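User: Watch each token:
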Amino acid sequence: TIKLIYSGPATVVPEELFSAADASDYLKYHLEDWAHTAFTELKNFGLFVVFAHNQKLEEVLRDAHYSITVTHSAHELLKRALVSPNKEFPRLVSIFHPKHIELVYHRGPKLLVYNQFAIEGDIDASYYLQLALRTTKQPESTTDVICYENGSNWGAVSFKHVNEWASDAQYITEVYPFH
């Protein structure tokens, strides 16, 4: 079985607002070709992740008799982050992708912020991580910051900027950890 993990534009929708029939509408302002959308459900957290996918690639793999599953890095990141048993302090978990940063800010199983931001320079990731913190008005000193590397050319340099305000932040360079 091949697990395709997409990392392009995505959005997170609470189950109370989600409609499978309208799934493509959630991305129409993010993409030019928003008709090719898929979604995954995070059942234990009451969330859906809606994302663009490559139907042609999936068709080629199926025609070659591969069994495939389709998901998004947001789903994998949320699934891993929200199972954190510590509910006392929030955590800011991010992935440095080649052209963008993806972040989840949560306290235990409660999602506070999910977003993706394009990265143009080495200070951008630090800016967006601090923006997420300030959005929720949590003091930086009580938040664990974890940054995963996923093939970016700017992650190590950006992390130095993050480390200026989060001295105990973790920078994890293992191969993309969400299998």
Q: What stands out?
A: The chain has a mean pLDDT of 87. Residues 107 and 114 are 12 Å apart (CA to CA).
